[in-house]
Write a structure and sequence with these properties.
With 200 residues, the protein is an alpha+beta fold. It has helices spanning 2-15, 22-39, 47-64, 76-93, 97-121, 140-150, 180-188, and strands at 67-69, 72-74, 128-135, 154-161, 165-172, 193-199. Strand 1 (67-69) and strand 2 (72-74) form a beta hairpin.
């Protein structure tokens, strides 16, 4: 049962191409359930102590799913889903079947339904990474001003000089009505801009 409930959460993460997917969530739930069963076995170990150790251990595993991508931090939701999956496994080990199933349903609702609601009703929170390649010898301050005019909600992260090119890297939150190809073309048409790279 623990493996099945963990698989339900893991499938949602798998469809989202997250670093921890189906097998990871199944193993987390299965391991948590087994630790709990061992804690209430013949040795009469206190199951709450076992649960505390599982929670601590899953923190290290969840930390491995979190990584920094530019100015964005990815994997927080997957780390949280691993934590919840461990709790589901603990509940199964304690034979709290209804709590385990209900938590799985609620977790899937948060991961999928709330995600859809975020896309529809909440403003875009993740930054768009913008790298603008500038013709060598151009005035960076002028080009920077033009780029910031095109991206009002942006901030410059780095300005790099190379032998044959100059780069400006920015973190931006463009309007939802503007598609990435439109934005790239708008920036590309700015004077002295040679190339544009956009990364979500």
């Amino acid at each position: 049962m623990a493996a099945g409930l963990g698989a339900a959460v893991g499938m949602e993460r798998e469809f989202g191409s997250q670093p921890a997917g189906l097998r990871t969530h199944m193993l987390v739930a299965l391991g948590a359930a087994l630790f709990t069963l061992a804690g209430v076995g013949p040795a009469h170990t206190d199951p709450t102590r076992v649960a505390a150790q599982v929670v601590t251990g899953i923190g290290f595993l969840g930390g491995g799913a979190i990584f920094k991508e530019g100015v964005n931090v990815r994997g927080l939701t997957t780390a949280a889903s691993l934590w919840v999956t461990a709790a589901i496994g603990l509940a199964v080990g304690l034979r709290a079947w209804e709590a385990a199933v209900l938590t799985t349903v609620l977790a899937l609702s948060v991961l999928w339904l709330v995600k859809q609601a975020e896309h529809l009703y909440l403003p875009l929170r993740r930054n768009l990474m913008v790298t603008v390649t500038i013709k060598h010898g151009s005035r960076l301050d002028v080009v920077e001003r033009q780029v910031l005019d095109a991206l009002p909600r942006a901030r410059v992260l780095r300005i790099a000089y190379a032998e044959h090119e100059q780069l400006i890297e920015l973190a931006a939150q463009p309007a939802k009505s503007v598609s990435l190809p439109q934005l790239a073309e708008e920036l590309r048409l700015l004077p002295d801009v040679e190339g544009v790279d956009l990364t979500r």
